[in-house]
From TrEMBL:
Residues 19-194 form the Putative restriction endonuclease domain. It comes from Nostoc minutum NIES-26. This is Putative restriction endonuclease domain-containing protein. It comes from the Bacteria.
Amino acid sequence: MTYTPPKILSFDKFITEYGDNTRYELIDGELRDMEPTGPHEAVAGNIAGRIYVEIFHSNFNWIVPKTCLIKPPAAEATALRPDVIVLDKEQLANEPLWQKEPIICNGNTIKLVAEVVSTNWQDDYARKVEEYAFLDIPEYWIIDFRGLGGLQFIGNPKQPTFTICRLVNGVYEQRQYRLGDPISSYLLPNLRLKLDDIMPT
């Protein structure tokens, strides 16, 4: 049996070939298929809608773009595509690529990211926790509605889990919520949400 190493892409090559394709992101030069399914997209849409309502009611000067890539400044061949991202409108003027492409380079433009867990759950629970903390993103939500994550991340027995990671002194403090638990967000203090509210039908 022959091992075929994955094709390595540069950031620019990824943008040229896959920039408009929301199915893919790039991590350390490796193309990652985000494996979106109908239920996955339904959960992401529910989360985006709930966040937008809170932004509107709180009169925050933030936006929730339909699609967006994050180019971490320290990673040459990485382009992260969160399922949901919240941006500070005032900071967009400092984004070098924003006027031509929906790409964010500066962490201080990002208020919150949310990832809906797929079978490549290792990226969401490990790699992206590090990347998003390094970018100083205040909150990172991990919505594992199928309970796919490893036991060290969601416990035993596995079950649907909503994890809120809040940045404290450069490190994420993580709090897990199960079905029936009221979810608490430091960034959106008036949020009224349970994992039950966003589960797909």
